Amino acid sequence: MLKAVQLAGRARGGRAVGRARGYSAASDQAFLSGTSAAYIEQMQQAWRHEPSSVHASWRAYFANVEAGRVPAFVTPDTLGSLAADRNALVAYPAASSFAPAPSAAAAPSSEILDHMKVQLLVRAYQIRGHAIADLDPLHIAARDAANAPELDHKYYGFTDSDLDRPFFLGHGILPGFLASDGSSLTLREIISRLQKTYASTIGIEYGHINDRAACDWLREKFEVPVRYAYTKEQKFVILDRLIWSDTFERFVATKYPSEKRFGLEGCESLIPGMKALIDRSVELGVNSIVMGMPHRGRLNVLSNVVRKPNESIFAEFAGSRDESVEGSGDVKYHLGMNYSRPTPSGAIVNISLAANPSHLECVNPVVQGKVNAIQFYQNDTKDRAKALGVLLHGDAAFAGQGVVYEAIGLADLPSYTTGGTIHIIVNNQIGFTTDPRFSRSTPYCSDVAKVVSAPILHVNGDDTEAVIFSMQLAADWRAKYKKDFVIDI
C-alpha cells in the first residue's frame, strides 16, 4: 500500500516549515479515494517493475511517495527527468500552474480515469459475477442483472461506442487478462473474458477471504484463457462414471418404483465429481477419506463411490438382510460402509461413509472427529495431509440446521481442526416443501461458510466438466491452505 510517512512539512517553492507535523504522502492527496486506491496500488506495482509502464506524472508521484517527500503530487507541466536522479524532489508548481490546462494536456487524466473505470468493472465481476452466472439447470431463479448494476459497462459511463476502444492492462494490473502477445484488449474483449471467467456455469465467491495470497491463488486458477481442457481419454472416464451414476438411478426407479430411495436424479454429476475429488486428493497425499451425507443420493454413492456390492443394496430393497448382522437393522439409506478403493494413480485409499440417522447434519461433527482421530494415530497432526473429511449437504439443511454452523466453527480451533473439510451441497432449490425465499434470509444457502473464510463455488450441475474442475480445485485448495472449501451444485 502507498506508505504513510512522518516528515517535516514543506512550503511551496521548497522552503521548510519550522514545525514538524504528521503527514501521509498518499492519504492527503485529493484524487485518492476508496474506489481508486486498488487501481493506484496495482499501478504502483507496475511502476516498481518497469517505471516506463506508467505515465510520467505517475512516475513522479510514486518516486516522491517512495522517498517520503511532500507534496508527492505535481502537475505534469512541472515534471523533470527522474532518470538522472530518482531521489530528486520534483519542484512544487507555482500558483499559476493550477490554472485550467489546455484540452490536450487534460487527455492523460481522462485516459487514466477510463482505465480506472475498467479496473472497477473487472473488480465488480470478480466480486459479484456470480450474481449473473448460469447456475440453475431448471431456470427457476432467473438471472437478474438489475441486482448487480455494477456489472454493466454503462454503469461506469461507457457507451456501446466505447466497446471497441482498446485498453492496455499492463504488468501487475490484472495480469490474468493480458493478451498472449501483451497487446491491449478492447472493452468488448475484456467484458467477454469476464463473463466467461466469472459468469458462466461456475460462480465464485472469494471476496470475504482475508488472506490476500489465497485470493490471488484463486484468481490465478480462474483468470486464464482456458480454465480446464480435458483430454479425450479423460472425457471417456468422466462419461463412464456419469453413465454408472445415471444407470443406477434408472434401474432402481424401474425395479422398485414404490420404494423410498431418495434418488440422485438431477445431480448425477455428483458421482464423477466425487471420484475426481478422491483421485486428486490421493495424488496430493491423502490415504484416508471419511464422508458424511444425508439420504439423497446415498445409495448411489454407496454403489459407485464406496463400492458396496449392488446385490447387498438390492437385497435390502427386497426386505432380506444378512443374518450375521445383530440387532433390528436399519433402513438402507442410513447405512454406511468402509472400503479400500484403488485409484488411477495406483495408490489405495481407505474410504469410510459414516452411518447416520434421520436427523439431518448431526453426522458432521462425527466425521470431523473421525478424521481428527485418524490424523492423531497417523502422527499427522502437524501437516494434516493424510486424512480428509468430505461432507455432503442439502441446501435447506445447510442453511437451517444449527449443527452446521457449530461444526464449521470448529474448523480452525487447534484441538478440533482437521486441516480443512470439503463441503458439497446438493442444491435441490427446495427444503422438503419450502421455497428458499421462505426458508433463509441469505442469498445463498452456503453463506454460513463465510465465517471461516471458505471459498464458495456455485456450479451448474448440468455442466459435468465444471463440477469436475470444482472438485479438483477444492482438493488443491485444501492441500495448500488447510482450509474448508464449499461447492454448491
From TrEMBL:
Sorted keywords for this record are:
Magnesium, Metal-binding, Mitochondrion, Oxidoreductase, Thiamine pyrophosphate, Transit peptide
Give the main location: mitochondrion
Q: Which GO terms describe its molecular function?
A: metal ion binding; oxoglutarate dehydrogenase (succinyl-transferring) activity; thiamine pyrophosphate binding
Q: Name one Pfam family in it.
A: E1_dh
Compartments in which it is found: Mitochondrion matrix
Write down the superkingdom of origin: Eukaryota
What is this enzyme's catalytic activity, as reactions?
A: N(6)-[(R)-lipoyl]-L-lysyl-[protein] + 2-oxoglutarate + H(+) = N(6)-[(R)-S(8)-succinyldihydrolipoyl]-L-lysyl-[protein] + CO2
Which SUPFAM superfamilies does the UniProt entry name for this protein? Answer: Thiamin diphosphate-binding fold (THDP-binding) (SSF52518)
Q: Which cofactor does it need?
A: thiamine diphosphate; Mg(2+)
Its family remark reads: Belongs to the alpha-ketoglutarate dehydrogenase family.
Q: What is this protein called?
A: 2-oxoglutarate dehydrogenase, mitochondrial
Organism of derivation: Physocladia obscura
